[in-house]
Write a structure and sequence with these properties.
Largest sheet: 7 strands, mixed
Number of domains: 2
Structural class: alpha+beta
Number of strands: 14
Strand order of the largest sheet: 3-4-5-6-7-8-9
Oligomer: single chain
Mean pLDDT: 94
Shape: globular
Order of helices and strands: HEEHEHEHEEEEEEHEHEHEEH
CATH superfamily of the largest domain: Fructose-1,6-Bisphosphatase, subunit A, domain 1
Radius of gyration: 18 Å
Length: 271
């Protein structure tokens, strides 16, 4: 179903959204154009304009597919139920909104096509650099038209991008004491459109995600897996977008790196 023609059409739509709805507001937002959705989470006029454009264009591209957008879901959580039993587009109209609102990179646009909870295709656009990543189920991963294979960093200690922001205090302390010594910890970009390519390109070796919302992870998880890396729940089960209430996921540039981190996390879970 994920044909070159479909990918070309999706890419054109995403670039249109970036150029018309997002970039005109970069580093020029007023306070009235930024709203708080939750502690440490904001939405901007660019998010809303981008989602409107993406929803319109993607609906016309595949009329049989529903559109599940981040902002529409924030307004009505029932939108997520569509992921369980039908063909759906999943849209993150502006991934990395906090970065964007602060006037700094990275930020991007994420689109995925899923059917009854399984991700069929994923597309990732970096708005500032123009880098375009995409993957189709069973057909590999690509960056700017070239097929890619995930590679480790090659560092003595694997490079781990681990977010401590959404962890409760005890879990945060466990990670710092028992996991951190085995890795070189680096800050996360707070942007899945950047984090997943880092795992493929050898910048990071592993990453732990606490929140696994579909618009943040559907495209990236497929992209990493199709590149030969491994992205799954810590227990090894596959990531499915219809299990949106589950938390916890590991992304790694290889199966071996995934297994090593999963084993360490499992030991923590048994303590």
């Amino acid at each position: 179903m994920i044909t070159p023609a479909l990918t070309k059409a999706v890419e054109a739509i995403m670039r249109e959204s970036s150029e018309q709805a997002i970039l005109p507001h970069y580093q020029s937002l007023t306070t009235a154009q930024i709203d708080a959705k939750a502690p440490d989470d904001v939405v901007t006029v660019a998010d809303r304009k981008s989602e409107e454009l993406l929803t319109d264009r993607l609906s016309k591209l595949l009329p049989e597919a529903a559109v599940v957008g981040e902002e529409a879901t924030f307004a009505d959580g029932g939108v997520l139920d569509q992921l369980k039993d039908r063909l759906c587009w999943i849209v993150d109209p502006l991934d990395g909104t906090n970065n964007f609102a602060a006037g700094k990179p990275p930020f991007g646009v994420l689109v995925a096509l899923v059917d009854k909870g399984e991700t069929l295709g994923g597309w990732i656009l970096d708005c500032l650099t123009g880098r375009f990543c995409h993957a189709g189920l069973g057909s590999g991963a690509w960056i700017d038209g070239e097929r890619v294979a995930a590679k480790p960093s090659g560092e003595t200690k694997p490079v781990a991008a681990i977010s401590l922001i959404f962890l409760e205090e005890t879990r945060r302390a466990q990670i710092c004491e028992h996991i951190a010594p085995h890795y070189r910890l680096v800050d996360i970009p707070r942007c899945a459109a950047e984090q997943y390519p880092r795992l493929v390109l050898g910048t990071n070796d592993v990453s732990v995600f606490e929140r696994t919302l579909p618009w943040d992870h559907a495209a990236g998880a497929l992209f990493l897996n199709e590149a030969g890396g491994h992205c799954a729940r810590p227990d090894g089960s596959a990531y499915r977008v219809d299990e949106f209430e589950r938390r916890g996921m590991i992304g790694a540039s290889s199966a071996a790196l995934f297994d090593d981190l999963a084993e360490r996390l499992a030991v923590l879970g048994s303590q």
